[in-house]
Amino acid sequence: MTHELTPAAAWLRLQEGNARFVNADASHPNQDASRRASLVNTQHPFAVIFGCSDSRLAAEIIFDLGLGDVFVVRTAGQVIDDAVLGSLEYSVEILGVPLIVVLGHDSCGAVTATIDTVETGTMPAGFIRDLVERITPSVLTARRAGVTDVNATVIEHTRQTTERLVDSSRIISNAVDAGTVAVVGVSYRLDEGKAVLVSGFGSVET
């Protein structure tokens, strides 16, 4: 399945929605009863957003979207596991989305916890440890570049996650090589509400 939008057109649509949100001019599209009814038996999202589970990072709100517009996958610290890869591959292979957005944000608790672990050597309890272990390579890469600030480390983690995603999935990497899909890393600024492009594979140039 191929979506009618190009990766560049999908990214432009997200940028336009985010600009409306930032300017307090959101239009809240596709949120009425007729839209709901039209989606009972089908869906054609134009992008998949793989973001952090943080309560301040609701994708449909910050990009001013509605029902059926985006396929959303969320984990704390946007960490990749097999379920995430399967979900993203489903969005590309079955739903035909032309754009994958890896969405990080300022003051990320999962990244902060990982920085604390790297500095103290003390692992958190339970399955939080799994999150920290998956984020640690990004923190170490940031440290080697002289980056210690949490928000700058989040940007590095978003870049690293974008790269790992393409490296880990043949379905996604083949789609990027074919030009039908782009994968972009985006950092969300909590104070402004602005989503900023920080990395990418494939073209989103208009």
Give an overview of the whole structure:
The protein has 206 residues and is α/β, with parallel strands linked by helices. The protein has a single domain (7-198), classed as Carbonic anhydrase (Beta-carbonic Anhydrase, Chain A, 3-Layer(aba) Sandwich), CATH 3.40.1050.10. 46% of the residues lie in helices and 17% in strands. It contains eight helices and five strands. It has helices spanning 7-22, 33-38, 59-62, 82-93, 109-120, 128-144, 150-168, 170-178; strands at residues 47-52, 70-75, 99-105, 182-189, 194-201. Helix 3 links the parallel strand 1 (47-52) and strand 2 (70-75). It is globular and about 55 Å long. The protein starts with 6 loop residues before the first helix and ends in a 5-residue tail after the last strand. 40% of the residues are buried. The model has no long low-confidence stretch (mean pLDDT 94). It comes from Arthrobacter echini. It holds the Pfam family Pro_CA.
